[in-house]
Amino acid sequence: MEIDERIDAIGKQPFRQKFHLYGREAATVQLRGREAIRRHAHDLIDKKLAPADPYKDGKQTPYRGHPVFVAQHATATCCRYCLQRNHGIPRGHELTAEEREYVVDVICRWIDRELAG
Ligand SMILES: [Zn+2]
After folding, report:
1. What's CA 53's distance to the chain center, in Å?
2. Residues 6 or more apart in contact with residue 62 via CB below 8 angstroms
3. Nearest CA-CA partner of 21 in 65, 87, 82
4. How close is the Cα of 15 to the center of ligand 1, in Å?
5. Does the pLDDT at position 47 exceed 80?
6. In the chain, where are the structural domains located?
7. Contact present, 64 and 70 (Cβ < 8 Å)
8. 50 C-alpha to center of ligand 1: Å?
9. How confident is the model at residue 11 (pLDDT cuts 50, 70, 90)?
10. Distance from the CA of 82 to the center of ligand 1, in angstroms?
């Protein structure tokens, strides 16, 4: 499934629909630029999502405070449970480089779509 199709499908879930980029988090993207946000996404995924057994898995992603956090909840890349259920990436292993790249692609694509819309 293509990234846009996946984002569309996940976006139909009532819980995910609530998340949009506006205010402080939208301003952060404009201020820092898309490349910086992509690097932040990589750093956050490496630390909080990629380990085989992430610290406080299911509760590691705040709802606000950074555009990547908002994007993670909107795209179901917030924890390993959501990643397994919505993206078919099983829990219990350290995310590969390809899987990390995929997650960051999904997050950044969602951010681009929000700012375009
Ligand atoms: Zn989650």
Report:
1. 18
2. 69
3. 65
4. 11
5. yes
6. 3-116
7. yes
8. 13
9. very high
10. 4
